[in-house]
Amino acid sequence: MPTTPKSEKESRLFNAAEALVEAALLDAGTASQKELASKLEALQISFDNKLNTVIQTQKASDLNFDNKINTLNQHLVELKKDMSMISSSIQEENKQKALERALSMTDLRSFYYYFNQETQKNSADLAKNVIKWFMFDHGYYLPDASLAQTYRNVTDEETNAFRDKFKAQIQFLIKRRPRLEKESNGRFCIWYS
Fold first, then answer.
1. pLDDT for position 26
2. How many CA atoms lie within 13 A of 95 on its CB side?
3. Residues 76, 69: Cα–Cα separation, whole Å
4. What's the start-to-end Cα distance of the chain, in Å?
5. Which residues contact 12 (CB under 8 A, 6 or more apart)?
6. In whole angstroms, what is the distance from residue 115 CA to residue 147 CA?
7. How far is the C-alpha of 86 from the C-alpha of 89, rounded, in Å?
8. What is the pLDDT of residue 178?
């Protein structure tokens, strides 16, 4: 019973078997019917054995190739994780160096502001505190302050002007725009972004 070839190797073996069968049929006139049947049966068994060997070899080769691809994929995933960790580590190191440099230059672009309507403070001191908190990935609550001394309650416009000027100072020092968020308690917190 003929089978359908599954690969090029199988096809070649199949064609060779057909040629042998045809040759055997041509020779049938001189050989006895039993002898021919015996030869054909032996040929069929040999062909089946060789075909099974080819199929098993191909399956083993495919499985080996699949295993190697899976191993390679696992190594690539590990490499990607390692590269991500190295990149994160370098970014964190660069951030810390930039913050250390900024901490030593807080007097640049500093200004005076007023807290509690009378107390004059230098923004360099506030910038030092903010940068120190940034080093630990924390934000810092900004005071409700103003740029001018006033003997009345500070307005939103005055505190916004103070926050904007201070945010610009921090941006100049750390070389990136900090994030300013209004918290649920109504206070403004500045974050390294």
1. 62
2. 16
3. 10
4. 75
5. none
6. 9
7. 5
8. 97
pLDDT for position 6:
61
pTM over 0.85: no
CA distance to 23, 36, 39, 72, 85, per residue, from 33 (Å): 14, 5, 10, 58, 77
Position of tokens 């403070």? 121
Query: Going along the chain, which residue ranges are E strands?
Result: 112-115, 119-122, 140-141, 145-146, 179-182, 188-191
Token pair in block for residue 187: 């206070």
Domains of the chain, residue spans: 8-96, 105-191
Cβ atoms < 10 Å from Cβ of 159: 18
Cβ contacts of 168-171, under 8 Å, gap ≥ 24? 168/109, 169/109, 169/110, 169/111, 169/123, 169/127, 170/127, 170/130, 170/131
Q: How many angstroms from the chain centroid is the CA of residue 107?
A: 40
Token couple for 63: 């499985």
Residue 181, pLDDT score:
96
Residues of the chain with pLDDT under 50: none
Got the DSSP string for 31-65?
S-HHHHHHHHHHHHHHHHHHHHHHHHHHHHHHHHH
pLDDT at 168: 97
pLDDT of residue 31: 52
